[in-house]
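Progress report, Aim 2. The chain analyzed during this reporting quarter is listed below.
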Amino acid sequence: MGEFDLITRYFQRPAKRSPLGVGDDCALLAPAPGMQLAVSCDMLVEGRHFLSTVDPARLGHKALAVNLSDLAACGAKPLAFTLALALPGVDEPWLEAFSRGLFALADEHGCELVGGDTTRGPLNICITVFGEVPAGAALLRSGAHAGDDIWVSGTLGDARLALEAFRGTLSLPADVFAQARRRMEQPTPRVALGQALRGTASAAVDVSDGLVGDLGHILASSKVGATLDADVATGVIAAAASCGLGTEILRTCALSGGDDYELVFTAPPAARAAVEQAGRESTTRVTRIGRIDAEAGLRIVDAGGAPVAQRFGSFDHFV
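Predicted structure tokens for the chain:
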């Protein structure tokens, strides 16, 4: 099977909303009047971002999910995406499963594949996603103010638990490992929550490299500091509820674990009811885990307010 046959069989679909999709040198997008384009790009590399043993349907889901998560962090509605795919060879069962997982999530969010590229090489998936958001309404990293609450969506740390189990550094019951592995391989982009938070959240970012590191982007962009409750954050690790794991590893997973693709966002205390309503509207759990401070730096404390001595890092591709 040649390159263009591969594209036609597994990835070409009629464009429904875009004026022009797959098949020409460029796609054409037409945002609604009064809307701005939101654009993000993420690359997944085998051995760096996913294991060779991953179910290709889950990989197709994740490849798009990590990009939709960026749109969610800006409060944007998905429109379309492009796919650049390097393959070591033509594996038809793999391509069928991958495209099925990819398009299942794309259809769920009304996000069309409108172009891209394929080539031979080590397995590498690069998606650029396009969304729209009302002019001036995008959620940014730079809007947090002293006194704001810090919130997180969903659960944290489950993907890191699965990774540690794969590495052999800890043992999990089979059902717990399956739950954590699903969170690592098939994350849920919080698109509906991001849109529901427009006009309520003061700043937002998605948690891809770890809570501490990604919250740090908000602090740097907003020129503020924060106090984070480590015990509350640890309490939202879904898979670890009954595992009997130690406090140190749970804190590491919740605060430093990557691949969560949840939203961490800030909002004034007066907006607590509105944040909780946004969570209900989007059927997404939201948990208040700290506050924004005028003093620079991040302070991590336990439930009693005592400083936590343990150090927490963030994922870095070049470290």
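The two ends are 39 Å apart (CA to CA). Residues 1 and 90 are 7 Å apart (CA to CA). These observations will guide the mutagenesis work planned for the next reporting period.
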